[in-house]
Amino acid sequence: MNAEHKRNRSVRPSRVTRHASRPGVFITGTDTGVGKTVITAALAHWLVADHRPIGAMKPIETGWPTARPGRSDAARLRAACGLDTPLEMVCPYRFPAPLAPYHAARQAHATIHTAVIRRTFAALRRRYPLMLVEGAGGILVPVTKTTTMIDLVGDLELPVLVVGRSGLGGINQALLTLEALRARRIPILALMLNRTSAAVGIRSRLQERSTVRLLRERAGVPVLGPVPYLKSLGKSWQAGIRQLTNDPAIHRLGRLILTNDRRIHARPSPRRRLPQ
Fold first, then answer.
1. Coil, strand, or helix at residue 238?
2. What tens digit of pLDDT does each residue of 127-153 get?
3. Cis peptide before 226, with omega less than 30 degrees from 0?
């Protein structure tokens, strides 16, 4: 057996996800630091204000703030949803190193088991029919030796919200992410554009307008935003998230999720063959 064949055997084969998806959404990003947690927390606030019982999960978090766990992404999502669920269920795998999940786990002498994530997700789903699940990094970031984040997306069978940058570079990153999801036949709910910094000056504003316009022409999915950049988030997270909850893009995203939920529940059950 040659080296190339051995290498190919170790890679998890591409899978096709069922077109039917579950109520809720998996939030991924075109990159790290694009604002997945900000968008997810604002969305959670909107759904809670609409009296929707929702659950949240951040299966893997790297760069875990050991000294101040309350500032972790998982803790912020838990608070946004008003959950009494233990943090260990919201985030089964927490690693201090700010690395890709696979390497962060190796540095901590740990192993990520996707079966644990699936079981935890199933347990939360029994309590909360509508789930928000936030990924780590982008969809091709390594999770284990043979899997990436897109494999986990397929396992959980949730439609995907892609969060991307509204400025320069956002077009290529967003279209590549959408293409990878389509290759796996994973349902895409929308693309949410987020301002990761203040658009200062004519050039920055022109770049943003160009990015938004071209993505609306080419993405093939609803393009929401851009969500405004709030410097105040660094001073008061909760106040900033409450402010973003009123943004029209968050309102539209919430309505998309609830509409998708109704469509799923409205699907007729498969017909059973009558006994002969």
1. helix
2. 998 999 999 999 999 999 999 999 999
3. yes
Rounded to an integer, what distance in angstroms lies between the CA atom of residue 67 and that of residue 65? 6
Respond yes or no: is residue 58 known to be catalytic: yes
Which position among 6, 58, 145, 231 bears the catalytic label?
Answer: 58
pTM to 2 decimal places: 0.87
- Domain positions in the chain are 22-265
d(CA 101, CA 99): 6
State how far the Cα of 174 lies from the Cα of 190, in Å rounded to an integer. 11
Separation of alpha carbons 182 and 185, rounded Å: 5
Q: Which residue has the tokens 């991307």?
A: 164
Integer Cα distance of 196 and 85 in angstroms: 30
Question: For 22-265, CATH number?
Answer: 3.40.50.300
Residues 228-238 pLDDT 10s: 988 878 778 88
